[in-house]
Design brief:
Serine Threonine Protein Phosphatase 5, Tetratricopeptide repeat, 8 helices, elongated
Amino acid sequence: MNSRSVVLLCLALECSPLGCKRSEQPPPLPPPGAPTAAIPPPPPAPGEIQRRIAAEEQVVAQEPRNVRAWVDLGNDYFDTRQPQKAIDAYGKALEIQPDNPDVLTDQGVMYRDLGAYDKAILNFKKANEIDPKHVQSAFNLGVVYAHDLKDTAKAIQAWNRIIDIAPASREAAQARQAIEEIQGRPAAR
């Protein structure tokens, strides 16, 4: 599974959704003395992203069945906060490859950005049906329930699922923190 914009929970229940492709935050530094991996390159400049989008648009115009190009285009629209264009590009990718939980999750995040919470929830649930261990979709489901629909019981249920399926993951730590914040006390799980 690839990792997208992993955004840590903010204080005061200001959760940001998790996506699946590129990381907007650098990974944590290794402990002292541990071997270091290559440092990821800095994010591309806005002009470079626009050139990349133009090139990807040409590719999909010439190769409309190129799922990778549609996903890349959707990801660049995601990263440049163009939610409707990202939704459309991800939709084309999903027409070709309908069972991709990462693309469903990223599209769901964009639906949430537009306030289409019901569509976001459907995407997150479908991604989780396809891959029951897909923690990003479960986390995002909790975000929508908690912050957009104000249904704390469903949010806690979604986040507890992450703790059950991937207890040592970064997402489980975020889920514990979200539950703690939503309940106003340390989580018991």
